[in-house]
Structure formats: structure tokens, C-alpha cells
Write a structure and sequence with these properties.
The complex is a heterodimer of chains A (about 290) and B (about 375). Helices cover about 30% and strands about 25% of the residues of chain A. Chain A has about 290 residues and is α/β, with parallel strands linked by helices. A six-stranded mixed beta sheet of chain A has the order 6-7-8-3-9-10, with helices on both faces. A four-stranded antiparallel beta sheet of chain A has the order 2-1-4-5, covered by helices on one side. Chain A has a two-stranded antiparallel ribbon with strand order 11-12. Chain A is globular, with a radius of gyration of 20 Å. Chain A has helices at about 55-60, 85-90, 105-110, 125-140, 155-170, 185-200, 215-220, 240, 245-250; strands spanning about 15-25, 30-40, 45, 70-75, 75-80, 90-95, 175-180, 205-210, 225-230, 230-235, 255-260, 265-270. In chain B, about 70% of the residues lie in helices and about 0% in strands. Chain B is mostly helical and about 375 residues long. Chain B is built from 13 helices and no strands. Classes of the chains: A alpha/beta (about 290), B mainly alpha (about 375). At the A-B interface, helix 2, helix 3, helix 4 and helix 6 of A face helix 8 and helix 9 of B.
């Protein structure tokens, strides 16, 4: 997992570019002037405390929420132009929360990813056989081919998330936005899912993932953005962003940052106030550096 | 960890083209279900046309009187019942998908009552003006008013649903009960204010096809067929909306526009059914519910199945209504309520008992 020395220049031109984006709900402004770029081949992590505006920013970028100011450009064209169908051909979004598509199997759910591509014989997917191939590819990439005929609601949390990722990949997007994709997943399924996302990025996808877990973000993201009270307060490589002073100011709790003993990426440790500090003994003979 | 799958290949043309995804195992069952539904509808239509005060044997030569009975009384009646049943079941299917709630149907949500109130107003206050060939103003005013009433009520329910977030079955049911009680009170109020029209209002509210003629069919058919065509053309959108409006939008569905079309279609279907047959409950709730359990939620299959199933059930209910107490006749709404209410309670028990939104939670 060579994460640290991946070049940031990969991918060339910006796939998604937001300028001075502002927006929120009713009279409450949540996102206050955010500019960012997503490039192909790069996984960008979006960090920030609860209520910082991560989900709102994703909704603004995804076009689910109209911005009050600023603009979003997808592949150089205005995001809102061409409507939902055109947007869905370029960008897939995994919002938070679990859908309850009663009476649908995995095949049904993933197949809906082909909606914007026309589906059936009238689309641009190369007819019926092309549609079947696209469906198979999305299922295979996410390891969900053998789940195809299971009812979606009978799946475990980790399987459901992989199926929803398969649906997103069936859209054949250039940009993928993920809002807390690893919430409620156990360790193995967190790693599995983000590894799948990384592999798609390596094949050229531009990814933005809002993540709660800063350590997971450091392990899987090339770039990190930190959002606080609706503004971007830091961006850069994990080792540039994950600084104790910045994290303490943003999250409001003391932390310590060390290097991952095996991978070298920064890892953040909580430092609850009032504890006696002592150097940690090694957990196992070969566990300590 | 999963075994590493290969990354996305930009050109799919280079892949060997052998299917790795087995064909959908539900296909067989769906074909059988479609066949069974078509057969049931055919049998119901035949039985409905054959049975009555003058029995007509199928496949025999009919005398002139019998031909008149078949063509002018029986056929319009079964056709009207079939149209009404298809309209109710399909609008129930759509409402259940829009609300992602198994208890939604035009009757429960008060949409039928909205159509009924508007239609009652027309019956009560619009004098039947004689027109050319027996056509009067009220004849087209009734369905038009029913459409307006249905659309207004459905819009109000959708707005209420949005206000409540995503209401669970019980909340939605209570909101629907409150709304239909209010609208029914309006119907009673109108009836009290116009006592001279109480007879026609009551007769019409009880629901039924006893006055059916080809004119009624000609009036019911356009809104119902238009509504059916609109809904059938939106089967992919309905599938996507089962994931929620936000996800449907990300998949490329123009959500506000599609909701608008579906609202118009549902109002057309409900109005067509209510304007010509009065209040017939439970067909819109139970038929899609049972068919969804059997065929899964894919609306490409479910919508035509619901149309056929609803038609068969309603023709059958009408047949019962006019044979059980012959030579008298029960209102069809009474028959569907007698058969449907226990079913409805059963669904409610399953839904609330399991604390699930949907009793048809499995796709098999």
C-alpha cells in the first residue's frame, strides 16, 4: 500500500472545480465560501468536526442543493447545465444513510446505476449486451457478483455499502463523492471499502470522501481538506494537514500526532486532558519501532 | 481482504463476452404470475359478462334480447369495473413507492375522499343541464372536479409527508385518517346543505357499477388510460425513487419533474375511478401489496401486474356484489371493505409488529 509517495499531479485537469461556494438551508448558511478542485487519480479526504458542513458541501458539489453564491464546474461545464441525467453520467454520489429499497435484489439496485446511461436498448451503453457487461463489471469490481440475487435488505452493513458503491460505479462516473462511506462499518469492512475506492482512483477516478476517522483518512487519501464552521481551514498532503495545533483548534481536544510505524503516514492519537502521560510500552516484541 | 479485482478497464470492447451474471431467477416466476393474472382477468370478465338475472352461456348463439343485455348492460359494466380496478391498483402501487410505505393507497391517504368531496359538490350544486344526446354539463364536470379534488389532496399529503420527514406507516395512516375524516365531513356537510340531492350523493358514494353504460366507459377510459400510460412510462423512475428522492436525483432522475408527472397520473387514475364508481376501498392497497410480495419491486413488472390484478379483483367483487343477495345488489365498496379490512389489519400487525416499514422486505 504505497500511499505516501504518490504524485499529486496525477490526472491532469480538474474534473470538478468549485469556486467560492456558499450555501445552506433556509436562512442558515452552512458552507461559507469554499473553493476546491478534484483531479482524476486523486483521493481527497474531507475532514471536520460534526456540524462543520461536510455533508452540506457534498450536497452543493453534487447539485442536490442550489448554491447561494459561487459555482461548481464539472469537466469544465457548469454543474447545473444539462440537468440531473447529464450530471449523473459524470458524477456519482454516495450520500449518508441507508436506503430501504424493499423488494429489490442487489441486481436491481446496481442496475439503477445505469439509469442515466439510458439503460435497456435505447442508451449509449451498447445495447442489451453492453448493459449486461456494465452491470457485471460493477458487480465484479466490488466483489458483489455472487450477491446478485440476494435481497438488498438481507445484506450486512458492509455488503450494502459495497453494493451501493457498485451502483455508483455502474454510472461510469469521472467523479465520485462519498459522504461517510465507512460509518457503522467494522475495521475490515472500512479497509475493504476504502481500498476499493482507492483502486478506482488509481484507474483515473476523482474521489472526494467525507470521513470521520482522521487516521483512516491519513491511510487512504492523497490529499486532505479540513472544514471548520463552513470554511476550508487547511488543505494538502496528510503530513501537511494533520498537525496537532490545527487539529486541536478545529476539533477542540488535545491530540498527539505520530508516524504510522509501518507505513509512515501520520496517525492521530487522542490525549484526554487530566491523564498522566507516560511512554507507552511496546504491545509486542516486534510491535515497537 | 477481498481478492483484488482488476481496476476499471477504459475500453469494454476488449473483454471476452461471456455472461458471468446468471439470468434473473425471478424471470420465470414473473412470467407465470403474468400468465396467472391475465387468466384471472379473462375468467373474471367472462364470468361477469355471463352471470346475472338472465344467464348467458359463453360460446353459444345469443338471441336479440340476450345480445342487447350483453352489449348494453353486461359488457359496459365489466369494462367499467376493470378500468376502475386497474386505476385503483396502479395508483396504489405508485403511492406506495412515492411514500416508501406499504399502507399508502388513494383511499387511505384521503385522495379518494378529496375526489369525492369535489364530485359531491358538483352533484349537489350543479343542476344537470340537458345537453345534446343526453350529455349534460355534470357529466364532464364530475370527473373534472374529481381530478381537481384528487390532485389538491395528493399535493397536500405530499407536502405533509415532506413536513414530517419520512413518516412511518402509523404516522402516515393517522395523517390520512385525519385528512379523509375532514374531507368526509365536508361531504356530509354538503349533503346536509342540499337535502334534495341526498339520494344521488349517497347512491354515488356507496360505489358501484349498477348504472354502467358505454357513456360512463367513454368518460372513464380517457383519464384512466392516460394515467396508466403515464405511470407505465415512468417505471424506471419509480424504481429509483424507492431508494429515496436524494439518491434518485444522484442517479439522474429529475425528481421534482417526475414527482409532478406521477402526481398528475395518480390524480387522473383516482379521479377516473372515483368519479364513475364512487368510493371503493382496499383494492389499491392490497393488490399491489400482494403482487409486490410475489414479483418483487421492479415496476416494469409490478405496474402491469397490478393493473391486471386490480381489474380482475374488482370485476370479481362486482360479480359478488350483484349475485350474493340477488335479485338485490350490494355496493361494491361494501364487498371490497368486507374482504379487504381484515387483510389491512393483518398488514398493519406485520408492519408494526416487526417495526419495519415494509412487510415485503425480501425481494424473493
Amino acid at each position: 500500500m504505497a500511499v505516501v509517495d504518490r504524485p499529486l499531479s496525477a490526472g491532469g485537469a480538474a474534473r470538478l472545480d468549485a469556486q467560492a461556494l456558499q450555501g445552506g438551508y433556509r436562512r442558515r448558511l452552512v458552507v461559507r465560501g469554499v473553493s476546491l478542485e478534484l483531479r482524476g487519480g486523486v483521493v481527497t479526504g474531507l475532514l471536520g468536526p460534526n456540524g462543520a458542513g461536510k455533508s452540506t458541501l457534498i450536497r452543493l458539489l453534487a447539485g442536490a442543493l442550489a448554491p447561494e453564491a459561487g459555482r461548481v464546474r464539472l469537466d469544465g461545464a457548469e454543474g447545473a447545465a444539462g440537468g440531473a441525467r447529464r450530471r449523473a453520467r459524470q458524477m456519482a454520489v454516495l450520500p449518508q444513510g441507508e436506503p430501504e429499497p424493499a423488494g429489490m435484489t442487489v441486481r436491481d439496485v446496481v442496475e439503477l446505476g445505469r439509469y442515466a446511461r439510458g439503460g435497456g436498448a435505447r442508451g449509449d451503453g451498447g445495447g442489451r449486451a453492453g448493459e449486461r457487461r456494465a452491470l457485471e463489471r460493477a458487480l465484479e469490481l466490488t466483489g458483489t457478483l455472487e450477491l446478485a440475487d440476494r435481497p438488498f435488505l438481507e445484506l450486512s452493513g458492509g455488503e450494502r455499502q459495497r453494493v451501493l458503491l457498485a451502483q455508483a460505479l455502474a454510472q461510469e462516473p469521472k467523479v465520485l463523492l462519498l459522504d461517510e462511506p465507512t460509518a457503522h462499518l467494522d475495521l475490515r469492512h472500512q479497509v475493504e471499502l476504502l481500498e476499493l475506492v482507492r483502486r478506482q482512483a488509481e484507474a483515473g477516478l476523482a474521489v472526494l470522501a467525507a470521513l470521520h476517522d482522521v487516521n483512516l483518512a491519513a491511510l487512504f487519501c492523497d490529499r486532505l481538506l479540513v472544514l471548520a464552521e463552513g470554511r476550508l481551514v487547511a488543505q494538502g498532503r496528510p503530513e501537511e494537514v494533520l498537525r496537532p495545533d490545527l487539529l486541536e483548534a478545529v476539533y477542540g481536544t488535545p491530540v498527539m500526532v505520530t508516524r504510522h510505524p509501518a507505513l509512515g503516514v501520520p496517525q492521530v492519537h487522542l490525549l484526554p486532558p487530566g491523564r498522566r502521560l507516560r511512554p507507552a510500552p511496546p504491545l509486542s516484541p516486534e510491535g515497537a519501532p | 481482504m477481498q481478492p483484488a479485482p482488476p481496476p476499471v478497464t477504459p475500453s469494454p470492447s476488449g473483454e471476452p463476452d461471456r455472461p458471468r451474471l446468471p439470468p434473473d431467477p425471478r424471470r420465470r416466476r414473473r412470467l407465470l404470475l403474468a400468465l396467472a393474472t391475465a387468466l384471472a382477468l379473462l375468467l373474471a370478465l367472462l364470468a361477469g359478462a355471463a352471470t346475472g338475472a338472465v344467464p348467458l352461456a359463453p360460446l353459444t348463439r345469443l338471441g336479440p334480447t340476450q345480445a342487447v343485455i350483453l352489449l348494453q348492460i353486461r359488457l359496459p359494466r365489466v369494462v367499467l369495473a376493470a378500468l376502475t380496478g386497474a386505476a385503483l391498483a396502479v395508483s396504489g402501487t405508485v403511492l406506495q413507492a412515492l411514500f416508501r410505505n406499504p399502507l399508502a393507497d388513494p383511499y387511505v391517504l384521503g385522495v379518494s375522499s378529496g375526489a369525492a368531496l369535489a364530485a359531491t359538490l358538483v352533484i349537489a350544486f350543479l343542476p344537470a343541464l340537458p345537453g345534446p344526446a343526453g350529455w349534460s354539463l355534470a357529466w364532464w364536470a364530475l370527473p373534472a372536479a374529481a381530478f381537481a379534488g384528487a390532485a389538491a389532496t395528493l399535493g397536500a399529503v405530499l407536502a405533509l409527508g415532506r413536513l414530517l420527514g419520512r413518516p412511518g406507516p402509523a404516522t402516515l395512516l393517522l395523517a390520512g385518517v385525519a385528512l379523509s375524516t375532514l374531507l368526509s365531513a365536508g361531504v356530509s356537510l354538503v349533503a346536509t346543505l342540499q337535502p334534495s340531492r341526498l339520494g344521488p350523493i349517497t347512491f354515488w358514494l356507496l360505489g358501484g357499477f349498477s348504472g354502467a353504460d358505454w357513456r360512463a366507459v367513454a368518460l372513464a377510459a380517457p383519464p384512466v388510460l392516460l394515467g396508466l400510460a403515464l405511470v407505465l412510462s415512468r417505471h424506471r423512475e419509480l424504481d429509483a425513487l424507492l431508494l429515496g428522492e436524494e439518491r434518485a436525483g444522484y442517479l439522474g432522475v429529475e425528481v421534482p419533474r417526475e414527482l409532478g408527472w406521477l402526481l398528475i397520473a395518480t390524480s387522473l387514475l383516482t379521479a377516473g375511478a372515483v368519479a364513475l364508481a364512487g368510493m371503493i376501498g382496499f383494492v389499491g392497497l392490497l393488490v399491489p401489496h400482494l403482487l409486490r410480495l410475489l414479483s418483487g419491486s421492479g415496476h416494469r413488472w409490478l405496474l402491469p401486474l397490478a393493473a391486471g390484478g386490480g381489474a380482475a379483483v374488482t370485476v370479481g367483487a362486482d360479480l359478488l356484489a350483484r349475485t350474493v343477495v340477488a335479485p338485490g345488489e350490494l355496493p361494491v365498496g361494501v364487498v371490497t371493505a368486507l374482504a379487504g379490512a381484515p387483510f389491512f389489519l393483518l398488514i398493519l400487525l406485520r408492519v408494526e409488529g416487526r417495526r419495519e416499514r415494509w412487510p415485503w422486505s425480501t425481494g424473493r
